[in-house]
Amino acid sequence: MVDAPSPTAIQPASSEATEAAGAALSTPQKSELPPAGPRRTPFPHPASSASVPEPSTLTTEQTTAYNSLLNTVATWTSIGETDKAGAAHTPLGDSELMWLSRECLLRYLRASKWVVATAQTRLLNTLLWRRSYGLVSARPDQAGPKITADYIGVENETGKQWLLGYDNAGRPCHYLNPSRQNTKRSDRQIEHLVFMLERAIDLMPQGQETLALLINFAETSSGQGASIGQGKQTINILQNHYPERLGRALLCNLPWHFWAFMKVITPFIDPVTRSKIVFNNPLEKHVPPEQLLKSHGGSLSDFEYDHSTYWPALITMAEERRKLMHERWVHGGKRVGENELYLKGGTDASLAKDEENRRGKERGGIRGRTLQLGAEQKREKSVSILAEGEQRDALDKAVENEGDKVEAEKAEELQAETTKEGEEPLRGSEDKGCTGLEKKVEDLKVGTDGLLANGEPRATNPTAST
To answer: Using one digit for the tens of pLDDT, what is the confidence trace for 48-106?
Structure first.
């Protein structure tokens, strides 16, 4: 279903180019400047009181699953032109490859209970659906996508949908106003919803991946709401092709006929999605007052929907952000699995830069371990030399002790022999009147003090006796 990649490597851009793109993305554009008079354009950023939650840390098992999915998806270079069996394959375009971000892969993994094969199938099905549905052109060199601002614009002329402000978690607030319905039921009404979902994604701030859906049924008649068929189709699209995108659905001013609709449609809603739906809860508990309409419980009283002003402002704001994200994606090396935090601007590193930093740390770690090993080897060698010296000293001491022992034994033997000679006269010395012991003593005396002052030996008396 997908083709293998070409061996051509894509080189990342310089850090200066990446930083320039990041600065551009974080700098308000002309369409984001505060309007003069009543507000007729979307809010470009969340209120200062909003707080985007930190992303959760992956477990070891989740990291393994993500890496496995990324390794597979990174080999995709072309898919079918449509989701029909046997459709001709065409290369994936830049917008499709950039769509396969790190966070996108993780959203599909979470929605697939971390089963890699399931997430892989769902991702491929969504890529094919986006082409078939008209969000992306399979042959951009010949024709653009079907669903464009001009094609959808007529559906929003009365303001039945708008993006206005952000909730307390920094989610873009996507309002549905059924009472402003201006067209007959058709596929374009569902395409209108999908188009606005895409624009809400464009306006998501850094770190936020979900939106807040606010549906106000005030003054809505039974014929203005969605049909059961449209409801099922919408649920199918949201759950299969926008998994993990709904952060909160706030429904207020519910009419009696809505409950009959919900009774029929609820079995088709995933339990996780169902848990995010809140009924008739005050909106001011979820949206900062300065970005919430006064009619909804906030303090924003000067917003007026003027299609001629709001629609081009929304389209321009979304296009500018997609353009800058694409520039950063190109500067980062056109990588599948790119970090959306980097793409949205700020100081987060691109995937290529992050890998480069990690390799640098690994090289530094290897060098540090090598130096540590060398020091340990030197220390072990010094200890070995010291031990050898101590062994030699011990051996010398043993030899010395052994020599002392031998000398002592010899002295004892000599003493024993001398004692024996003193007890028994030597043969042949009786006629001379002295024993062998006396002779030895006399000889010693001659050796020690038998020298005269002039160096001549003192005369001895061989016949002297004791």
So the answer is: 999 999 989 999 999 999 999 999 999 999 999 999 999 999 999 999 999 999 999 99
Evaluate if pTM is beyond 0.70. Answer: yes
The whole-number average pLDDT for the span 223-245 is 91
Q: What number of residues does the chain have?
A: 466
Distance CA 247, CA 421 (A): 119
Q: What's the pLDDT tens digit per position in 172-220?
A: 999 999 999 999 999 999 999 999 999 999 999 999 999 999 998 888 8
Strands 211-216 vs 246-252: parallel, antiparallel or unpaired: parallel
- 89 burial (CB, 10 Å; 0-12 / 13-18 / 19+) is middle
Q: How far is CA 441 from the centre of its chain?
A: 100
Sign of the CA dihedral with 187 first, then 190, 196, and 199 last: negative
Across 245-261, average pLDDT:
91
Amino acid 463 reads T
With beta carbons less than 8 A apart as the criterion, state whether 326 and 19 touch: no
Q: Which of 176, 226, 168 is nearest to 196 (CA)?
A: 176
Over residues 313-337, the pLDDT tens digits come to 999 999 999 999 999 999 999 999 9
Structure tokens at 444: 């010693």
Closest C-alpha to 333, from 345, 320, 323, 342:
342
